Amino acid sequence: VQLQACGGGLVQAGDSLRLSCAASGRIFSSYTIGWFRQAPGKEREFVGAIRWSGSNTYYADSVKGRFTISRDNAGNTVYLQMNSLKPEDTAIYYCAVQYYVGIVSNAATYGSWGQGTQVTVSS
User: Fold this and answer.
1) Distance (Å, rounded) from C-alpha 16 to C-alpha 86?
2) What is the DSSP track for the chain?
3) Please, are residues 18 and 6 in contact by the beta-carbon 8 Å criterion?
4) Rounded CA separation 50/34 (Å)
5) Cα dist. 23→55, 60, 101, 102 in Å?
6) Average pLDDT, integer, range 74-97
7) pLDDT at residue 74 above 80?
8) Would you tell me how many other CB atoms lie within 10 Å of the CB of residue 100?
């Protein structure tokens, strides 16, 4: 599976943005698609994830209630809807595949990292 994230941009605090993660190749029901972000000088951190089977979603506390992950049932696209954006959300956002059931927040268990998309939130 290959992933490509897009949809980033420059927005103001309080604005919304929707990122897309398009997957080429078959996504099996056992897979989980995760979103992570990395700000300059910081480690990559978990944002959220969706299990392909059942569409269960998981979120980091820092984005819970503001971000929503969904999937396109007709295709292989996962979305990250980001509302009420804050300057601290500024980062490069990545999507990746967890090929087996594991701890969704553990970046080390993910592969096929897509090229990230920059999100910049100005105050």
Assistant:
1) 10
2) -EEEEE--EEEETT--EEEEEEEESPPPTT-EEEEEEE-TTS--EEEEEEETTTT-EEE-TTTTTTEEEEEETTTTEEEEEE-S--GGG-EEEEEEEE-SS--TT-GGG-BSPPBPEEEEEE-
3) no
4) 6
5) 16, 23, 19, 20
6) 95
7) no
8) 8
Beta-carbon neighbour count of residue 79 at 10 Å? 17
Condensed to tens digits (0 to 9), the pLDDT of residues 16-64 reads 999 999 999 888 888 999 999 999 999 999 999 999 887 899 999 999 9
Rounded-to-10 torsion of CA 16, 18, 19, 23:
170
- Number of residues that make up the chain: 123
Tokens of 31: 């897979």
Question: In the predicted model, is pLDDT for residue 114 greater than 90?
Answer: no
Structure tokens at 101: 């059931």
Cα-Cα-Cα-Cα dihedral sign, residues 90, 95, 99, 104: positive
What residues are paired with 121 via a beta bridge? 11
